[in-house]
Amino acid sequence: MTEPVLSVQDLRVWYGSERGAVRAVDGVSFDLRPGETLGLVGESGCGKTTLGRGVLGLLPRGAKLDGEVNYGGRNLVTTSRRELQQMRGPELGLIFQEPLTRLNPLLRVSEHFEEALGTHEPDLDKEEIKHRSIEALRAMGIPPTRYRAYPHEFSGGMRQRIMIALALVLRPSFIVADEPTTALDVLVEAQIIRILGDLRRNFDTSLLFITHNLGIVAEACDRVAVMYAGRIVEQGPVTDVFARPQHPYTRELLRSTISLATTGLHYIPGAPPDLIDPPSGCRFHPRCPEAMRMCPQQFPQPVALGPQTVECWLHGPQNLVPEGGQEPLEREEVTVADEA
Amino acid sequence: MRRSPLPTKPDVLTSTGGAQDDALMEIRDLEVHFQLRSNALARLVGGGGETVKAVDGVNITLRKGEVLGLVGESGSGKTTLGRTLLGLVRPSSGQILYGNQDIARLRQNKMRKLRQRLQMVFQDPHAALNPAMDVRAALGHPLRIQGLVRNKAEERARVVEALERVGLTPAEQFLDKLPSELSGGQKQRAVIARAIICGPELLVADEPISMLDMSVRAKILELMLELRRDLDLTYVYITHDLATAKFFCDRVAIMYLGRVVEIGPTEEIFADPKHPYTQALLAAVPDPDPERRIPRELPRGEIPDAAAPPHGCSFHPRCPFAFEPCGWEARDLQALFERRWTERGEEVFAREEHLVEGLSDLPSGQETVRLPVPSGRNASELKSLLDDARAEAPDDPLWRGVEDIDVEDGQVTLRFRAGIDPELRTVGGVDVACHLHDPDLKPPENAGY
């Protein structure tokens, strides 16, 4: 097995608030290998975006980062702001959710590229910059005729392609894509997914793909990590996780997705918890259809099940489950008052 | 044949044609055009500028009790059409017959009275509620405006009833809440409660779940189905999400650039989509089953500028099956070169750019165009470049629309085949506007899938 490009160990991101610490990311570990795409899914408010930003060190002031983000032989958590700044671009990239607001309306597309390449690769001359930029744009399907156009002359989908080209032109080895298709139409979304899917074949770029759309994960990702209330509750290869979800949350999330094959409506009652004072033990237990007496008492251990890793007491380890711990949990009714 | 345990629709609704007396609303030749004024003077005195045909000749009969889906990408005119049905946008021409009245021509004061019966659920629940108004006030306002309650006690009772109907129980808990204290799903429930509180018969729901979290979407859809059953509602469901349209709608109208390109019973459209655009939309829906992948062939490009729609069939520049009568024009040639340069790269672009630079200034929609030859170059160079481009991509649908290319008097003349605007025609159980389904035209062999 090849060495991971990025290895995240026990990452925590807490925000300060008047009521106490918000544990947006609370002990998350995963690895990303070269050219691999990891999909990060979960409901809103589960910490997906915070995790993506935390890995790149792009957190607002007042956020506390702890744990390890190992990249290129160093821990990004302890790397200085200045050094991180220099790594962002040539090594670590980010593709934002809203392409419409992320390009400077006063600058031509060419000027965006000149600025990015000029800053990070000052040795390039003008011709080389132009060549590299046009090549990057071509790979995204933008014709060279448009190189000197302004952002407003492009449609939403084209702008997202330009954003991706801008991230790729510096040839980073790791990119975070935060809901890159949410604001786009179905056909354009499919085109962008196609492009991102081609990334892993044509470049050695590793991608952390944040989305709430499980369909996109199935199309574009190699592995998937399901996040709930600041934890990754299940991760593994997409085909295995989607065919045999082991965590009740993954299963319920898959069932509540409305696809062309949907024949009945299904949903998860309640809403993701308040991260200031999350439920005790397994955080999903108040909404879990299979909750046991054990679940609210103790945090579940990560268990390896074939290629998947799951944090759920249903899968043991059995020696830690006390007698009677597997009895069903008696719970209060979840009402609309708690819904998301 | 419904695949859910949820309320099934009466059978009469699935058959097309149906008796006309079950019509709730009839939309005839509806057009909504917006003027874009080019400068300040034109804005003052009117005239000039381009016209955006947001809705361009739509005919639909809305039947009582059905869920009609308006499906399309942004810019297809689906939202404008939905708003026009409620008198929120004034159409340029056409009729919207509701009862014995024509909404297209109704005066504002009469329209206001009708709003008891015609209501809207907005896309963004966070923006549809006044942040300074508590739930009681937001829901009570329509009752007061319509004069449906005599006193506060009565108003409160109606508000509580509506809240309970949409599942915001116990209602007392929600009466004094501000929108900021509600979650997304709760807000959308409140918006729906406000829409049903006056007792409407038609709800136009504009992407009611697209801003909500995946886990709440199903709940809101289920609520809407319950309300339809209990209150005898008719829905116009506007969406770009085919998966929910398939589940939720009885009939679907697929829209593209202001026109309905395919309309029919949901099951038939999803089982056997006839328009290439519908086929493309369906193929592009991401599926959570990893065994099913998006096909490699997707229509290129994006929905064109509505102020300058393509000649002939609006979808032809993106359509993989386009053929002779689809409306080829000079712009398509420009697009072909852009594709060529994207594929072949910078060098080819640098070599050819100058020779075809006049392409972008050519008039659109003309059958015969003269390609300008830049000074210092000659016509045969341009002709051979066109031949090259053709040899390179002989299967590009554009070449089916090119009748001939001539060099005469030092000019290159290009003749396109005459473009025909496709009209809706009945094919099987659906109506579709596409030349592929016109028996009088001969589509290419490989057409359709």
From TrEMBL, chain A:
One of its GO terms (biological process) is peptide transport. It is a peripheral membrane protein. Keywords: ATP-binding, Cell inner membrane, Cell membrane, Membrane, Nucleotide-binding, Translocase, Transport. Gene3D superfamilies: P-loop containing nucleotide triphosphate hydrolases. It comes from the Bacteria. Its main location: membrane. This is ABC transporter ATP-binding protein.
